[in-house]
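The instructor's notes for this session suggest beginning with a concrete chain rather than abstract definitions. Hand out the sequence below and ask the class to guess, before any prediction is shown, which regions might be ordered.
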Amino acid sequence: MKIAKRILLVLAVIVLGLQFVRPEKNISAQPPGKDDFLVRHPAPAKVKTALEVGCYDCHSNTTRYPWYAEFQPLGWWLADHVKEGKGALNLSVFGTLSPKSQGKKLNEMIDTIETRQMPLKSYTYTHRDAIFTEEQIKDIVAYLEEVRDKVAPDGE
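After discussion, reveal the predicted structure:
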C-alpha cells in the first residue's frame, strides 16, 4: 500500500509540475489586417460568423481558447493543432499569397468543407456551434467559389 501512495504522490507532483510548462498562445494583439481573408473578401454575416467559428481558431493568428486549454498536456495538444492548422492555411495572411496560391487554397477549403473533413471532429466535439448545417455548407461553398472566381479566374 505504501508503494501505491508513493507512486500516486510522484504522479501528482509530475502533473502539477507540468502546469508550469505552458505553450505560447496564438493570440494576436493586433486587429485583423488588410491581408486577413475576411477583411479582403467581406462575407455575408451568416457566412462570416460560420467561418470565424469554424475556421479561424485553428487557421488564423487569433485563437479563442476553451477553459481546458489551461491544463497541460491538453494545452500542448491544442497548440500543436493550431500550429498544424496555420501551417496548412493562415487566413490572417491570406492576402499575401499569389492569386494562383489563393485559388488553390480556396479549392482546398471548398473540398474539405463539402466533404466535412473540416472542421475536425475533435474540434466540433467541444465547439458545437462549429458543426455546419447543409444550408451553411451551401452558403459557405457558394461564397468561397465566388471569391475563388474573383481572385483566380483561371480556376487555378
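Then share the key points. The chain has one domain: 24-151. Residues 134-151 form the longest helix (18 residues).
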